[in-house]
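Protocol step 4 of 6: structure prediction from sequence.
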Amino acid sequence: MGLLHWKLIPEADVTQTWDPQTYGKNGAFVPGLAGGVLEWLAAQSDERILDLGCGDGQLTERLAALGAKVRGVDASAQMVAAARARGVVADEANAEALPFANAEFDAVFSNAVLHWVRDQDAMLREVHRVLRPGGRFVAEMGGHGNVAAIYVAFMAVLTRHGYGNLENGVNYYPTPHAYTRRLEQAGFRVERMELIPRPTPLQAEGMAGWLNTFRRGVLERLPADLREPIVEETTALLAPALCDEEGNWTADYVRLRFIARTE
């Protein structure tokens, strides 16, 4: 077996980047499928809630409509600008270094964000810090097995071109046992946690749209002339498994949803 020769691009430098317009077109299913985690949150009027990774503010807006005092925070300046354009109060900051006072919130809410966070333990310590005693952390993230077929196909194509290391560490999809342990080590008591298989129909642009939205950070690190071919090759590899005879794509999503409280 021959040796693989990786292109010398540091994997630690690869971060996801977001474009609100592209996200709105190809990622609209994300807030659209958040009903379950919102139900678990059960936001109450006048509660102080932090929307961690608020994105373009769609869910923050829905929480505010319930009468909660909601503040958003996101690491993407573009997404924060889009949230503010909706009238959402939002700050630009990393989840590992939140710009809020101790015990400032009754609840921290997060949807489809935590699996992007690089330093999970630092993030959990920060969430614990900004929650009041007895406050709750309610979130949904990618769980073990999430987008497994997409990951394997994309890695195979990247590896064929010598860029397989770019996908390393992009996302973190834990088991319930592993994430319960992390939460407990950060001082939380886990009340409820479920791993939920959720095959997810994609938008009109299908798998190419998904890759251009949710692997934008990886694709931007590739030579410009390789981006489209890699998307096309990955899409072709996945079509037999994830595309039906009418051309409809379904992503192999698995979600991890939980409620945890500070002691």
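Step 5 (inspection) to follow. The radius of gyration is 19 Å.
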